[in-house]
Amino acid sequence: MLKKLLYITANSKPEKLSASKTVGRYFVNRFIAKNPDYIVEELDLYTEYIPEINHIIFTKRAEPVSGAEYDKLSEKDKETVNRINALCDQFISADTYVIAAPMWSLSYPSVLKRYIDCIILNDKVIKVSPEEVTGLLDDKERTMVYIQSSGGKYPKLLSGKFNHGIEYFEDLFKFLGIKRFEKILVEGVDDPDIGREKAITKACQDIESIIEKLS
Ligand SMILES: Cc1cc2nc3c(=O)[nH]c(=O)nc-3n(C[C@H](O)[C@H](O)[C@H](O)COP(=O)(O)O)c2cc1C
After folding, report:
1. Cβ atoms of 67 and 84 closer than 8 Å
2. How does pLDDT run across 4-17, given as a tens digit for each residue?
3. Nearest to 9 by CA among 77, 97, 68, 69
């Protein structure tokens, strides 16, 4: 059976101008070459509709309204709920995820957080009970690859102090039940001593061994 790689990008730049998207594309192409049992679905968070959650469509934690409450919504709000459910279903349907995003203010662009709030839904991705919240994505082997470009280069020892995006996603996806997490850093894109080309080349060097490990 065919598996699915969901390639999510969080950058408004065209691919050829974006370091994170250049490395992301390289990874996806190499991964597919090695894993022909995969199809690729792409989600560009800057060109596709990623709704903002509000109290009209979410009256409970992590749960868009349904049933009679849904019927009472305006047509526009119904469309928003439908879109949120569709984004969540698309996420669940994948086996491997690749996110390509730049580091912004030590984390990541806000549209990526907006997307995360759309897909973490009760009874689909998490189970919320009065006692605890548990992740439901341990139902099959899933892998997350997070590709982050950054203007600067951060020493490994201080990584936890600066790489809040990576730390957050690693913790979050593990909590959801996604067992394998790999990170690819495209570091020093705006550093005059490194620069875009060297940063991309260095990041791509690590990709073959990561794909080998994942295949
Ligand atoms: C709003 C904004 C915030 C940024 N914050 C940081 C930062 O905190 N640390 C850093 O090293 N680079 C930062 N940068 C630089 C970007 O990370 C860098 O230009 C980007 O990763 C290049 O990759 P791209 O071509 O895919 O956008 C920031 C850039 C912007 C536009």
Report:
1. no
2. 999 999 999 999 99
3. 97
Distance 36 CA to ligand 1 centre (A): 34
For 131-172, what is each residue's pLDDT tens digit?
A: 999 999 999 999 999 999 999 999 888 888 889 999 999 999
| CA of residue 147 to ligand 1 center, whole Å | 13
Q: From ligand 1's centre to the CA of 189, what distance in Å?
A: 8
CATH architecture of structural domain 3-53+96-116+133-214: 3-Layer(aba) Sandwich (3.40)
CA of 126 to the centre of ligand 1 (A): 31
Parallel, antiparallel, or unpaired: how do β-strands 58-60 and 63-64 relate? antiparallel
Atom of ligand 1 nearest to the CA of 106: 8
Domain ranges within the chain, ordered by starting residue: 3-53+96-116+133-214
- The ligand 1 site (C-beta within 6 Å) comprises 11, 13, 18-21, 102-106, 149-152, 189-190
> In degrees rounded to 5, what are phi and psi of residue 156?
-50, -40
